[in-house]
Amino acid sequence: MSAWVAREHHRFEAAGKPFVYLVPSAAIFALDDAADSVLRTLSTKPHTREELAMALGGASSAPTTAGGGGRTLDVGAELARPGALDPNALDAAIAELSRVQAIGIAAAPVASTPKVIPLAPFPLTTMVLNVTNQCNLSCTYCYEYGEDKIVDTENGKQPKFMSEETARESVEFMLKESGANKVAHITFFGGETLLNFPVLRKTITYARRRAAEVGKDVDFSLTTNATLLKPEIIEFLAEERVGVTISIDGPKEMQDKFRVFQNGTGSYDLVAPKIKELLRRHRSRPIGARVTLTSGKMDVKRIYQHLTEEMGFWEVGFAPVTTSPTRAHAISDGGYDEMLGQFRDLAFDFLEATVAGRHHGFSNVKETLEELHKGVSKAFPCGAGLGLLGVATDGDVALCHRFAGSDSHKFGTVRDGVDRSAQQAFLEQHHIANKTDCSVCWARPLCSGGCYHEAHTRYGDTTHANLHYCNWIRGWTEVCLQVYGELSERNPAFLAQFDDEEMKELVS
After folding, report:
1. What does the angle CA 344 – CA 459 – CA 330 come to, to the nearest 5 degrees?
2. Which has fewest Cβ within 10 Å: 29, 194, 354, 386?
3. How far apart are CA 227 and CA 239, in angstroms?
4. CB 346 within 8 A of CB 304
5. How far, in Å, CA of 225 to CA of 245, rounded?
């Protein structure tokens, strides 16, 4: 008689209930005792149906599964007697777990995930326009200007500032490469983006006019260190509804540790009043903060509270520094453990606030919850090289903004278009199927090996999986799964908003 065996999954608990994350499908299911008992028993070794019945004589309930996307399917059955699993309940649990491919016949071959490469031309959704590669700060940990830099922005071939002509050519490139998409996204980046504000301003005006002529809309955003936020710039950003992300590391002593001017002077006292004025005036879109975490003492919750409660940011996102492991500010293995613990604490603050119907701006957890809810399973870690491309100051098109100006990561030019052969070769080389280290990791649907730039900096190879933070990724995914499970029981309406966003994307 055929034996059943558990397929690849990750079990976790939330809201006093067992859940399972099915790795191949990236679906999440809530299990009651019967389904959980069957799955746990089959995780130890294969069992026939009769062996399961003998092993689970003490099970007490039938399976209820809540599918990915927050959907619930009830296949419950009444039990014959307390303390014993009714045969109908066992059969229902086996049938349902088999249907969702949580278990399978042991002798049956496990279907391999096909290596699917998106068809070219893949529509461009976001163009990151590096309007300058210069900066007025000299942040110690900066990947663009420190020892980890990929491109020589001081003596290299690229101009230090993008010209109006190149910016207009970039807009035409964006509109053409966006294909049938009705909305194109342009993100202005640097260096310090606002050093080239005149070109940024004219580009927005030009892009709005040209997009209207071809029946599209353009959404604009930028990242800035806030040092150049003059009243007229703030007014422009507010009137044009430009999304703004501020790079800031927290209270004064944290900000001034690394985010300094060339003479070593800290930047907090200069940027704090400018940021508060931006937040006061610019209310058409939420303003977010982006924090870089480094070695040494971390205080994620204090940073978050300062930036939201004292500064007034709507949301805050944290990212570990990207740097060679030999740098003093690089995060060690112990540092990743510390960061995970602090992320966990803030994530559960997010949970309790959300259950109570209050806004909480920890963007890291919200973004992961959305991916979990939508059942995201990535063949590539991000949209770089696909729906997102970076443009250097001379109009060269790169994998993303972090590689802008690098000949080794060039995907064409805004004048000649995307080099499809280079793009296709990149996708072939970087598919998750090629990262053998990731093949047995249950967190791979969300990670897919991690950031290309991080891999290049750490290992000198964008195809390399970021093995130095595997435990961190698994730990953080576990935290987010727990938060997701809690919300599915305590505030499912919050998760339903991601269904709405999905529908907006489908009809936009």
Report:
1. 45
2. 386
3. 20
4. yes
5. 9
